[in-house]
Design goal:
2 domains; 87% helix; 0% strand
Amino acid sequence: MANEILQAGKGRGKGTRTFFSSGTTPDTGPDFSQDPAVLAAETTADTSYQTAAQQADATLNQETQSVQDNLQGAYDTATAAYNQALADHTVQEQTADAMADQAYQTALAADQQAYDTAAAQAQDAFQQGSQNAAQVYQAALDQADQARQVADQGADTTYLSAITAAWNQFGQAQQAAQNADAAAHQADQGSYDQTAVKAQATYDAVANQLNQTSTQAQAQAQATHDTTVSQALTARTAAFNLAQAAWSNADQAVQQEA
């Protein structure tokens, strides 16, 4: 712009000048265009104008450069601030991602630990329940076997006592018959034989009855033993099923929580 003004100012005062008075008729007064004083004044004015134009152009260029420098500085500052904000945001995002991933891994590990703990507890409960059921079953078997042995021993003892008593009674009867025969030599042999046969029949009847009683007692003891074993087996199966159900429920609950 300053150059355009400078170029426009060049040539001012040069050439022939025409002076006009009022109206449109040219003034025919004297021509001072070639007057040295006029030419010197024009030269001085032109030089002053060019100097002022150059100074204005330099000032304009300086101000323009200053504005450009300020704009460039502001742009650089804004760019640096943007890049720093972008870097800070990236760091914050990476930090948040790392924290979220760590929290997820921690929660996952805690959930796995809870599942493993619950599964181990359920397995322990199942094993304990199975052991308890087995112990109860074995105890019932031992009690039933002991009861059967006691019953067998009792039946044997009763049988032996009764058969011994019957045998003693038979011996006493036989001895009484012999004593009676010895005391009364005139006693009838038939009476002795009848007494002996009667004593033998009594012994046989008592022995048969005792044998039946012993057999019935042994059968009853065996039936009681079988019933006790069956009940113990049923109790063991129920306890095992209960432990299995508890373990299954615990495992299902842990899986649902997972």
